[in-house]
């Protein structure tokens, strides 16, 4: 705190009181490190002046303490050892449960996601001090949810080349509590979904589900507080918070909630003068919102389009610039089949770009590719193009089913949306599309139909229509004499699919589908 020099003009007590009131009403005043006072005319009995000084001291103390904790948090996350990007398979989990005397404990533990190394011993204390409004206890620690978000949940929206997204959001959350609350809620919801898909005991699923609901309600309360502050409501930070909530609601297939958030987002965009007046990061999360809206709507939707954002992505995304000379088996049947010449030119262009991305992402060819944040937005742009084709172009049923299957492939195999409640909607959309194009595909491109049904089976695991998809897949594979996995995978990999070492569950799904068919034949 500084003392005002003699050269500064004096401020009467009445005017200072008015200035104090004005400062309280100012909704977005940047933090300062000093407070001007008039030491010569200071009246020790002036209560307003005393309150003003005390409030300044408290605010500055808490701000400096938060900044110190965030610096400690950043250092700990930068020193964090490399972590696995994938959830261990069930078979790998069983290798760690060798003690037969504790079978019940082992059964529960094998469903738990293996936790990455602790970021730092004092991280829990750092988070609690930096974000005191998160002091309400949860079933699982905040550290666990932050780690899960960093390793797993971020890939839903940011699957490529963005390892610092968690820290960036924590920085923004210092001034916008709702942002870290929705971050933790997203992590808790994703954790519960992973446990559900893996068949975990109900009490494990319930623990994370309760935390997700509790954190979501806190986020809504924070947003309600922002609604009474017009300057904060129309900020990009508020836009990001609402966009994140909208993405989570869409993943949970809460269509009505998504529409309500969509109206709030449109109101903010209009108030700021349109999409191209927003920053790059805000535009990126809006494109993610468009992807989620497209996935949970059975009919094509009107999308946001920013020439500024798309120009930057085309210019800076490495695989869109065609920097790599890729010769690969992945996706080649899209381009050398008898029906390939009939595909829409825009669809072909998107498939070409995805062919490059999938080959690089699956490491089919040795290359010098290093993922960056811009590659993540390149994938997002390709998703956007697949959605735009449905809205802006009138594709034949054959091509529209292909477009939808390619979109679902990117969502399941790259973003990791398998098992999410929204899968019920986009798999049902794929099924309706197949009802229109099944006969044409079966006659013209039975191998393409096999791949489409296979992608549908991956997306529908644990969902309502999985049985129908598997039955159709069995019938087509039998007609093509591709009942054995080793034979079928050769065809599948010439579309968009690369068998990974962690795909044991996929092989088992295929084999069990044909074993069930054999058992029914024997019974008959």
From TrEMBL:
<feature type="compositionally biased region" description="Polar residues">
    <location>
        <begin position="1"/>
        <end position="10"/>
    </location>
</feature>
<feature type="compositionally biased region" description="Polar residues">
    <location>
        <begin position="70"/>
        <end position="81"/>
    </location>
</feature>
<feature type="region of interest" description="Disordered">
    <location>
        <begin position="1"/>
        <end position="110"/>
    </location>
</feature>
<dbReference type="Pfam" id="PF11951">
    <property type="entry name" value="Fungal_trans_2"/>
</dbReference>
<feature type="compositionally biased region" description="Basic and acidic residues">
    <location>
        <begin position="42"/>
        <end position="55"/>
    </location>
</feature>
<protein>
    <submittedName>
        <fullName>Uncharacterized protein</fullName>
    </submittedName>
</protein>
<dbReference type="InterPro" id="IPR021858">
    <property type="entry name" value="Fun_TF"/>
</dbReference>
